Amino acid sequence: MKQPNLLAFLCALTWPLWLPSAQGDAVIEGTVTLPARKTDAPANPRYQVKNPAAVLAPDPSAAVVYLEGQFPAAARTNAPTQQLKQKGYQFAPGLLPVQKGTTVEFPNLDDEYHSVFSYSKPKRFDLGRYRKDEKPATQTFDQPGVVKLYCEIHEHMRGLILVLDTPHFVKTDPAGKYRLEKLPAGQYRLKAWIDEKTVWEKPVELKDGDTLRVDFAGK
Fold first, then answer.
1. Torsion angles phi and psi, residue 12, rounded to 5
2. Is 138 inside a domain boundary?
């Protein structure tokens, strides 16, 4: 009479081990060729630009490639805190992709005050003024979308935070290359975010162990 109970107990212990892993081993890699971009100087700046080259081109031209779709259920974990620095009178990096729910810290590494703010719909905030020897302000980004960053003191400063509702994303390197790893099997949409008005998309089907090459190119 006790054997069925013992068998049920052993099954309960081992049952989670039989479930498929929410983290797969598929890979997508490729290159994103960006369209030509124009970089305009800020109109009627009130403050001197101390490093024009860095301010007007704070980051190498980059895209954000991400996977979108219905992913297998996974244990919820808090996304690690990210940093977006104020350094050399620019935002570094100039484009920061984060997963929805991520907290971002804004350290000031310059010798002057900075005052970061945004009027963007996904996250409206004003961090106020603080120096580099003061504790950095933080914000948690809990809505997907594009958050435009400005500095109330140095109006030439511009930055972007791209908040994504997916754990699978990466920013391209200066050569336009990207690699997404540990992807689960399934049918998804692979997207390349170029700017607010330009997002390229391709359907992909992944199987465990696959390595797909997917390139994006624009005119």
1. -65, -35
2. yes
Strands 158-164 and 95-99: parallel
* Helix or strand (DSSP H, E) at 16: helix 3-18
163 within 8 A of 141, measured Cβ to Cβ: yes
Report whether 215 contacts 29 (CB < 8 A).
no
In a domain, 2, yes or no: no
Cα distances from 193 to residues 34, 66, 69, 74, 95, in angstroms, run 10, 8, 16, 25, 11
pLDDT tens readout for residues 157-198 = 999 999 999 999 999 999 999 999 999 999 999 999 999 999
Identify whether 63 is part of a domain: yes
Six token digits for residue 12: 């309960």
Other Cβ atoms closer than 10 A to 57: 13
pLDDT digits (tens, 9 = 90+) for 93-141: 999 999 999 999 999 999 999 999 999 999 999 999 999 999 999 999 9
Q: Which domain holds residue 179?
A: 21-217
Selection from 117, 64, 65, 126 nearest residue 91 by Cα: 117
Cα pseudo-dihedral 92, 97, 100, 102, rounded to 10: -30
Which own/partner pairs from 122-129 qualify as long-range (CB within 8 Å, at least 24 positions apart)? 122/146, 122/147, 122/163, 123/147, 123/161, 123/163, 126/152, 129/153
Whole-angstrom Cα distance, residue 23 to residue 127?
Answer: 36
| CATH assignment of the domain containing 190 | 2.60.40.420
